[in-house]
Amino acid sequence: MCTGNLSKLPKESNADFVTCEGLPFGAAPVGIKVEALKSVCSWKTETRTDTGWGKYFTDSGLFKVEVLNIQDEELRHPEIRLTLDYPEDYAVFKAIFDELYRERTSGQLERSAQAA
After folding, report:
1. How would you classify the pairing of strands 17-21 and 65-69?
2. Per-residue CA distances from 83 to 5, 12, 75, 86 (Å)
């Protein structure tokens, strides 16, 4: 699964920014070195960075970026968007977390992704 690889990758590759490709938008883990984050915060001029902030790392050319391409078909759902922008989104998040909390068994996230 992506999270296991993601946690090791910055140390192994010396990446400043690590992300996953192929997971639902809004549900892919991201790894950022503290120094890279401090750097961006020191020079960015935009004040509204609640969306699109990844471009500071991926498009600036200042950071080493690694992208993990997820091949597991049970996890790959690039057609799904999982963001918390509207009340309807909250209802989806609540249903997912209610299901995860109720089951408390291994593989809950995968089963929830299949249900979505």
Report:
1. parallel
2. 23, 30, 17, 9
**CA 65/CA 59 separation, integer angstroms:** 10
108 & 75 share domain: no
* Parent domain of 95: 84-116
Structural domains in the chain (count): 2
Secondary structure class of 34 (helix, strand, coil)? helix
pLDDT digits 0-9 by tens, 5-15: 555 555 677 89
Give the model confidence (pLDDT) of 58-70 as tens digits: 999 999 999 988 8
Q: What is the distance, to the nearest Å, from the Cα of residue 39 to the centroid of all Cα atoms in its chain?
A: 20
Global pTM? 0.67
